[in-house]
Design a protein that fits this description.
Layout (H helix, E strand, L loop, with lengths): L21 H9 L3 H12 L5 H11 L13
Length: about 70
C-alpha cells in the first residue's frame, strides 16, 4: 500500500490531526508503519489464529484487541 504523497505539503491535509485523541494519533502512525503492516498481513492469513499469536502481536505493538463481536438482536 503506497501512501498518497501528492498533497504532503498542504497543511489542510493534516487539519484533522488537531481533533484526534491520543489513541487516534497512535493508530494514525502505527497503521503507516511498514513492519506493522507486514505483521498484520501475516497474522490475518494464518488460520486458526491462536490466543498466543494474538497476545504476541498485541504485546509487540502495544495493542489491546477487543473480543469478537457477538450477534445481538433486540
Amino acid at each position: 500500500m503506497s501512501p498518497d504523497t501528492t498533497r504532503w505539503r498542504s497543511s489542510s491535509t493534516y487539519d484533522y490531526l488537531d481533533h484526534l485523541t491520543a489513541p487516534d494519533v497512535g493508530w494514525e502512525w502505527l497503521r503507516r508503519n511498514e513492519d506493522y503492516q507486514r505483521n498484520f498481513d501475516a497474522l490475518r492469513t494464518v488460520r486458526p489464529q491462536t490466543p498466543e499469536m494474538i497476545e504476541q502481536a498485541s504485546t509487540w505493538w502495544g495493542l489491546r484487541f477487543r473480543r469478537r463481536a457477538k450477534v445481538q438482536r433486540h
